[in-house]
Description:
Layout: H1 2-5, H2 9-17, H3 20-31, H4 33-36, E1 42-46, H5 52-63, E2 69-74, H6 77-82, H7 84-89, E3 93-96, E4 109-115, H8 124-134, E5 135-146, H9 151-173, H10 176-188, H11 192-201, E6 205-212, E7 217-223
Parallel strand pairs: 1-2, 1-4, 2-3, 4-5
Antiparallel strand pairs: 5-7, 6-7
Helix pairs in contact: 3-5, 9-10
The chain binds S-adenosylmethionine (SAM).
The site of S-adenosylmethionine has 19 residues, from α5.
Amino acid sequence: MFDQIAPRYDLLNHVLSMNVDRLWWRRTARIFARILSRNDARVLDLCAGTGDMSVALQAVAAKKKSNAAILALDFSRPMLQHGLTKYRARKIQPLEADALQLPLADNTVDLVVSAFGFRNLANYDAGLYEIFRVLKPGGEAGILDFSEPGGFMGKFYGFYFRRVLPRIGAVISGVRSAYEYLPASVQKFPAPQEMLDRMAAAGFTEGNWLPYTFGIAGLYRAKKP
Ligand SMILES: C[S@@+](CC[C@H](N)C(=O)[O-])C[C@H]1O[C@@H](n2cnc3c(N)ncnc32)[C@H](O)[C@@H]1O
């Protein structure tokens, strides 16, 4: 599915989110500024796609004059290929691999961030286990993804997400199923407390969820003890 939508992915992201996506990536990267400012930091952008999360992480590292190494991992070659210009310009290393079988040794990464990718994994617990395995003790994880807000905002958002967004997505990408899949995958994704419980069960500590933009999206943070 991601191979099919890759050519229009960036455009669609910006149109469908009305550019709020940029704020979410930047805010997430800033939260991890302490790690990114370290010259020896190894950072993994999991499910990196066309690379906008990696770019935001690299911008924070550059601002801190750090040479933190950023690895952009995705299993869709077309998604990585459409991000190549961004990756090359910033010395970000793209890597074609499956998030459920990371080709990385245990305890070797300081920070794993995943933006709008984790929700797509076929097995969330296996994904958490892999993140935990590759993190160094003291390393941190950040999972940014959509959420379903309650109240009035939830109703408005539900209408936009289920009725409007799939139509615009289908017209621009030419792939109807992809943008029907998006609201369905968000509905299937665990609510914040369940996700935090799963993170704790995988071994993470200090888990918390930070809502973004009325809870339309949010960042899960946790540490490997
Ligand atoms: C919605 S895109 C997000 C891309 C990017 N992180 C962003 O914020 O724009 C989800 C990405 O997850 C990737 N993905 C889904 N399952 C994966 C897996 N098991 N291993 C690696 N990548 C995966 C897809 O190929 C796709 O590029």
